[in-house]
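Anyone up for a design puzzle?
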């Protein structure tokens, strides 16, 4: 989920950079790029990637074969 949000923020930053616009308060295209990189780093660290199924022991969420 964080990767999708990061992609949206990268898109906004790209558009702001193309038109050369600045949002009042010091936000520019580079601000959105840095925010997107932060979200991607959190995604890679495993934040926000919890599975809905939590009762299983292996990463696939199924039963182990014996």
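Challenge accepted. My sequence:
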């Amino acid at each position: 989920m964080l990767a999708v949000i990061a992609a949206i923020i990268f898109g906004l930053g790209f558009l702001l950079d193309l038109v050369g616009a600045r949002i009042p308060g010091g936000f520019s295209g580079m601000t959105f790029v840095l925010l997107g990189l932060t979200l991607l780093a959190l995604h890679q660290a495993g934040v926000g990637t919890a599975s809905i199924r939590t009762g299983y022991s292996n990463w696939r969420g199924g039963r182990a074969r014996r």
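A detail worth pointing out: Residues 2-45 form one domain.
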